[in-house]
Amino acid sequence: MGLMVLLLSLCLSLAACDRDLPRPKAPSETPMLEANPTSTLDPSPREIVIIHTSDEHGRLEPVTHGGFLEGGASLSAALWADRGHDPLAANGNVLLLSGGDNWTGPAVSTWFQGESAVEVMNAMGYRASVPGNHEFDFGQEALDARLAQAEFPFLAANVFDATTGELSERFEPYRIFDVDGIRVGVIGLALSSTPRSTGAKGVAGLRFGDYEPALRRWVPVVRAEGAQVVVVEAHACGDELLWLAQAIEDLDIAVLLGGHCHSALVTRQGHTWIGTSAGHWRDYVVTRLTVDPSSGEIIASEQELLDVLWPESRPAPAAPAAVQQAADKWQARVELALGETIGYTASGLNQRSPEMQNLLVDAWLWAYPNARVAISNTGGFRAGLDRGEITLQEMVGVLPFENELIEVELTGAQIRQALAATPEALVVGGIRLQNGRLVLTDGSALRDDEAFRVLVIDYLYDNNKYPFARYDSEPYETSIHWRQPAIDWIRAQRTSASRPLETLLDPVRRLP
Q1: Where are the alpha helices (DSSP H) in 166-283?
Q2: Fold of 37-330
Q3: Does position 2 have pLDDT exceeding 80, yes or no?
């Protein structure tokens, strides 16, 4: 026995053992309660640190903003080490978690379907993530490849096989971690509205359940297995977490973490700390818990939101070598693949500007003249164009999703109804608002009984919150990637400093 204690102590001190403790195959099995060798050797209270990020969207390097470097994986990892809460440190008291949407964003992530993001997150020391809605953007085969690549689990206690009703086998409902001798149970929750927030094909065969029933099922299991502290990591917005904290107050959850809305929040409700991140590694939530290792009682706790900012005028601290090497490797790869210059803008284009949004749908009609009307959602624009040369890499970052164009046939009346009924702002080509009524671009009336060929993206067609599939059940799949016409149109204009892109675009917002 003395040799065993010595070996266990040595393992903990060198942080050489896998600290992710196994979970039972089914909740009905006898819980496996493991002794905690560290608490036997040192019964004094200890502080554990939980770092939470969310909606990273694969941004590996910081961007320049107002004289500061902001966000990005490499700067975050550097600041974690510089600020004394390094998840890679040997003391092992830091638990690094993500609330999902790890990829889809800048081209360095999107073009490689998240492979770059996962490699960097492995190097950063992430211990768990949850599947955000954008984890499904490239389909379930690509998702499975990322799950296999990740050196950390993806947790979701509310994702089910739609046929069998059983939990999806690709996710674990929870995992228990040994954090400096404290057993921390982390339960994951996917966004319950994921099917309405990503392409239908990506979530085919899956059902996303409500949060409260999932926690009421699994919190007792996690505690029976020996978790002293329970943390919930969710891909859900702050307002949902505030409501959820009230509904499950009796479950005595220590920390409830989320994201999705790209809005930062740090607050407390009852005994539960609630934190969300703004995304892109621009900030992170730090929760410190002082725990009695013998009883599991939380003696003291605090939570704060820290920005990832560094003045451009000062040398930034170095990121861990493995993190920086991975980021540099993928940046070199994306520049090799997408470094081609296709145009020029003197002023740059904001992602929400009419010019940017009109460019997309007008390019569709230019490339596919069989259609007279084009409709897209404004949520698909994820970045703007900086001043200067426009590269393929930038265009992939502007329009990162894997959508294709679908041709449907709608009457003028159905076009009006679709524009009025959709739950988010839309951008249109081929029609505009004039004196309070919709007209065609040439000024002629949009006749209610006239049939029009209309281009939409498959995301809009396949999603039942939009009416297009109900209006035309036999669409024509063009196989045209939604991004490609915009790229081809910009190339064809041969823009330059004397003929910048913005001078060729319609600056008028066509819908209110």
Answers
A1: 211-224, 238-247
A2: Purple Acid Phosphatase; chain A, domain 2 (3.60.21)
A3: no
| Tens digit of each residue's pLDDT (9 = 90 or more) over 413-435 | 999 999 998 878 899 999 999 88
How far, in Å, CA of 141 to CA of 283, rounded?
31
DSSP secondary structure string, 438-489? Answer: EEETTS-B--TT-EEEEEEEHHHHH-TTSSHHHH-SS-EEEEEETTHHHHHH
Pairwise CA distance, residues 187 & 244, whole Å: 14
- pLDDT tens digits, residue range 251-284? 999 999 999 999 999 999 999 999 999 999 999 9
SS3 229: strand
Query: Which CATH superfamily is 341-504 part of?
Result: 5'-Nucleotidase, C-terminal domain (3.90.780.10)
Cβ partners under 8 Å of residue 492, min gap 6: none
Query: How far apart are the C-alpha atoms of 75 and 63, rounded to whole Å?
Result: 10
Name the residue among 416, 506, 402 with its Cα closest to residue 462.
Answer: 402
Backbone phi, psi, residue 62, to 5°: -70, 160
What single-letter amino acid sits at 353? S
Q: Where are the domains of the chain?
A: 37-330, 341-504
Q: Which residues contact 334 (CB under 8 A, 6 or more apart)?
A: 107, 108, 111, 112, 116, 393
What band does 41 get if pLDDT is binned at 50, 70 and 90?
low
Task: Give the ranges where 86-157 is alpha helix by DSSP (H).
Answer: 107-110, 115-124, 140-149
CA 129 to chain centroid: 10
Q: Please report, as a single letter, which amino acid is at residue 127.
A: R
> Measured between alpha carbons, how far is 335 from 485 in angstroms, rounded to an integer?
21
Task: Evaluate whether 37-330 and 341-504 have a shared fold.
Answer: no
Element (H, E) at 356: helix 354-367
Q: Which two tokens stand for residue 359?
A: 């460019």
Report whether pLDDT(490) > 80: yes
Determine phi and psi for 21, rounding to 5 degrees.
Answer: -80, 145
Instruction: Report d(CA 353, CA 109) in Å as an integer.
Output: 24
Which pTM was predicted?
0.88
